[in-house]
Amino acid sequence: MNFWQYVSSRHQQLLTDAYQHAGVVFQCMVVATLIGVVIGVVTYHSDWAGGVATTTTSTLLTIPSLAMIGLLIPIVGLGVPPTVIALTLYGLLPIVRNAIVGLRGVDPALVDATKGIGMSGPARLLKVELPLAWPPILTGIRVSTQMLMGIAAIAAYASGPGLGNEIFRGLASLGSRNALNQVLAGTIGIIFLALLFDAAYVLIGRLTIPRGIRA
Fold first, then answer.
1. ∠ at Cα 76 (75, 81), nearest 5°?
2. pLDDT tens string for the chain (215 positions)?
């Protein structure tokens, strides 16, 4: 059985795995984005606090994914919980770092002008600073998503959802007739999903970032 015959015979299961893979990455990115932007907002005024936030999230990213999931299994069990926690933690660094950089990059003169017209701190943050910091934040989200697409495959180690199950099944049966097809199907599926997500982010950027800021 060649690769395309394998895909044709297993297309329903592959579509299900792809949907689950995309779903868990999307959900974790939403959570990581909310947490990361909040951390950036809280810490960007202080060099010390910003350094601590960046260092902490950097340290989380250095933990091997298998080790992270393995450590979470005794605490939260198998399946979706360790997958979601691990992916959310791994997704924080680019978002936190870019949120801090973006917020610090807002023109101080513009901030002073908003203060001069009596705009409150929360209003200034929501209407001026975050919109101007959105381009680097979106870049951080794109980077995180690409990372999590690959890391999510490791979730199969903990009976998690996604295309990693195809890869692990193929690796566990190396030498069998469809082992290589399984690994290729899972890997190519993840690459395809990563490209789809990135194209979606490009579209979001064009819709949400004014042309002058993009330039």
1. 145
2. 778 888 888 889 999 999 999 999 999 999 999 999 999 999 998 999 999 999 999 999 999 988 998 889 999 888 889 999 999 999 999 999 999 999 999 888 887 787 778 777 788 888 888 888 999 999 999 999 999 999 999 888 888 888 999 998 888 887 778 889 999 999 999 999 999 999 999 999 998 887 766 54
Task: Choose among 200, 142, 174, 187: nearest CA to 21.
Answer: 187
CB contact set of 124 (below 8 Å; sequence gap of 6+): 111, 114, 115
Enter the tokens of residue 40. 């950036």
126 DSSP assignment? I
Write the DSSP symbol of residue 161: S
Residue 30 structure tokens: 């939403």
**Strand segments (E) across 110-213:** none
CA distances from 144 to 23, 87, 120, 124, 127 (A): 15, 9, 32, 27, 25
Q: In whole angstroms, how far apart are CA 4 and each of 20, 186, 190?
A: 22, 13, 17
Give yes or no for a contact between 38 and 126, defined as CB atoms under 8 angstroms apart.
Answer: no
